[in-house]
Write a structure and sequence with these properties.
The chain has about 325 residues and is α/β, with parallel strands linked by helices. The protein has two domains: about 30 residues; about 290 residues, Metallo-dependent phosphatases (Purple Acid Phosphatase, chain A, domain 2, 4-Layer Sandwich), CATH 3.60.21.10. The protein is built from eight helices and 13 strands. The strands form three sheets. The protein has a six-stranded mixed beta sheet, with helices on one face. Strands 3-2-1-12-13 form a five-stranded mixed beta sheet, with helices on one face. Helix 3 runs antiparallel to helix 8.
């Protein structure tokens, strides 16, 4: 009788665990619905994040997401929409079912021998390890100076059509050509530009997206790609300017996706025929966008997008080992 009662007590927990595992597996192995019968082409995935602010908390789950998508898809690209540097402990973080109350302390130049600078070094190493395909510098990413962004694992990934000085820092965009899918995908950057770099003592010139210089560079970049992803670290009104000014003669955006950062918002929606996605704060969310590229018609025939709550995924063990080692070497790294 005792054994039966024990089983009865434990049984609901077993059911709960099975359901939780099934839910996690669904999130991990079903990134998108199957293509329609008439579709002849490939699905191109864009996995996006932003506003990490040196927080390592969900980056192991993010790597799990990337691995699982790549297990089921060939055409997968990852982008980081700025502010991977500079933590602020006064944020009330938006979780999967909550809101963000943003309270930011003033930014100051960070001394190289400070604990904060060491935390920046840890974040640089982790960002390099995650191997994003393209990274746009956010306003906080200037805080440690150009030397930190010049790291060999970061600089080749940096994009920013609006970065004028130093001119050698970032490319306007990074192009990717697929032999199997017969397409060119451009990852185009627009960096954050609210003068925090001046407080860091750096000689940096970053134009607004609305200047003719920035707009001409972005339009030129979109003209060379079958698919274009705009990665921005801008306020909402500047993202809105992108949708209204970077258009063809019919008023349609010249880009297929805008992956944004800076505002710490978390949403995925369609706007004017393009995907508009922002993936939150501290790595709580990732954005998962799919472009259905028809290899016969040579055009995008469908776009789908959604947010993924990373807390629902199992952490990648290799990433966890790295994070633990960084915490031991840089104890102030959150």
């Amino acid at each position: 009788m005792i054994k039966i009662r024990s089983v009865i007590k434990v049984f609901p927990l077993i059911i709960w665990a099975v359901l939780l595992f099934a839910c996690s597996q669904k999130h991990n192995t079903e990134p998108d619905p199957p293509p329609p019968a008439a579709f002849q082409g490939v699905r191109v995935y864009i996995i996006s994040m932003g506003d990490l602010h040196e927080y390592s908390g969900k980056l192991a789950q993010y790597r799990t997401l990337v691995k699982n998508i790549r297990d089921t898809a060939t055409h997968v690209y990852t982008v980081l929409a700025g502010d991977f540097f500079m933590v602020h402990r006064r944020y009330d973080v938006k979780r999967c079912d909550g809101q963000t109350d943003m309270k930011v302390a003033p930014d100051l130049k960070v001394p190289k021998d400070s604990n904060q600078h060491k935390a920046g070094l840890a974040m640089a190493r982790l960002t390099e390890f995650l191997e994003f395909d393209a990274i746009v510098p956010g306003n906080h990413d200037w805080t440690y100076g150009i030397a930190m962004l010049n790291r060999p694992g970061l600089k080749p990934k940096l994009v920013g059509c609006n970065i004028a000085e130093p001119s050698h820092l970032a490319k306007n965009y990074l192009p990717f050509y697929s032999e199997s899918g017969h397409y060119t995908l451009n990852l185009i950057g627009v960096a954050g530009n609210d003068d925090i770099h001046a407080q860091a003592g750096e000689t940096v010139t970053v134009y607004s997206i609305t200047t003719s210089t920035s707009l001409n560079k972005i339009r030129s970049a979109t003209g060379t790609g079958n698919m274009n992803v705009l990665i921005t670290h801008l306020p909402d009104q500047d993202d809105a300017a992108a949708f209204s000014k970077i258009c063809n003669t019919r008023g349609e955006p010249l880009f297929d996706v805008l992956c944004g950062g800076h505002t710490h918002a978390s949403y995925a929606k369609m706007k004017s025929g393009a995907v508009y996605i922002k993936a939150g704060l501290y790595g709580t969310f990732a954005g998962l966008t799919c472009l259905w590229w028809d290899t016969v018609r040579h055009e995008v025939v469908k776009k789908t997008t959604r947010m993924v709550c990373l807390g629902e995924l199992i952490p990648d063990q290799e990433t966890m080992i790295l994070i633990d080692s960084l915490h031991s070497v840089y104890p102030h790294y959150p």
